[in-house]
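Changelog entry

Holo records now carry the ligand SMILES as an explicit input line rather than a separate metadata file. Below, a converted record for nicotinamide-adenine-dinucleotide, shown in the new format.
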Amino acid sequence: MKQRIAIVTGAGSGIGQGIAYALVEAGYRVYATDISEARLASTKAAASSADDLLTRVLDVSDWAAVERVVADVVEHEGALDVMVNSAGVFDGYADVLETTPELWQRVIDVNLSGTFYGCRAAAQVMVKQGHGRIITIGSVAGQRGAADGLSYVASKAGIEGMHRRLAVDVAAHGVTANVVAPGVIKTNLRATSEELLGDLVADQNRGIGVSPDIWNFLIPTRRPGEVHEIASVVVFLASPQASYVNGQVIQVDGGWNAV
Ligand SMILES: NC(=O)c1ccc[n+]([C@@H]2O[C@H](COP(=O)([O-])OP(=O)(O)OC[C@H]3O[C@@H](n4cnc5c(N)ncnc54)[C@H](O)[C@@H]3O)[C@@H](O)[C@H]2O)c1
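Structure line, unchanged by the conversion:
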């Protein structure tokens, strides 16, 4: 059987990296992409099968670059079976008065427009080839106002609406589009966002994710999640067993959204 091909954005760290590794373990050939060349090099170095994990530097907020990477993968591999959009930045829990137009624009550019670019480039290929899976990492913030800052909440809510429409557009072509919405997951999101957003964010160490007291109150499971607990759901959505799951937002949050 032909090896299945996946692209993962934001695969230099955290959830995207865990998804890239889990897809390699599941037998895929994975193109791990990230804005940071250094983080991608670490992802590559720790891969269980270096031959099955290739890397490409990619800023998802650049439409032309996203289109170029997808075209390059399809030219080399002849198909694109799975597109995972995981790249994202955190807005430091900034409220409406703290959210400058510049912070708003950058968070929307990366989290929402970057996801749209990945979805569109993948859909162009998948609709034509007659199969494919598009899976995007949303957040509990897509449904809860107090989960994160204003621009982040808006970007993640936008991702959910966009995937409902996307699922409608691609379903008849054998393609599914779903969102996996994590709660609090142990990653470097605050540190990488501080590096990438700089002065646009005043303080990256505020909000629900930093306080065990708040987790214990909000998350019935009473602990943050692990990257592999998100990656396993993505691997399921990419599999043939998930062929009739479409247009869904799957909460993987220890029960937070049920509270
Ligand atoms: N960690 C959590 O608690 C949590 C909860 C809900 C949702 N999420 C979402 O999960 C996704 C992954 O975040 P994470 O927690 O693994 O954080 P992370 O910082 O560990 O990984 C994010 C990666 O995305 C990359 N990235 C950022 N901007 C980019 C751009 N413009 N183009 C390409 N790559 C870019 C970063 O370089 C980094 O390697 C994000 O969409 C985030 O919003 C995280």
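Spot-checked after migration. The domain at 5-258 is CATH 3.40.50.720 (Rossmann fold). The two ends are 44 Å apart (CA to CA).
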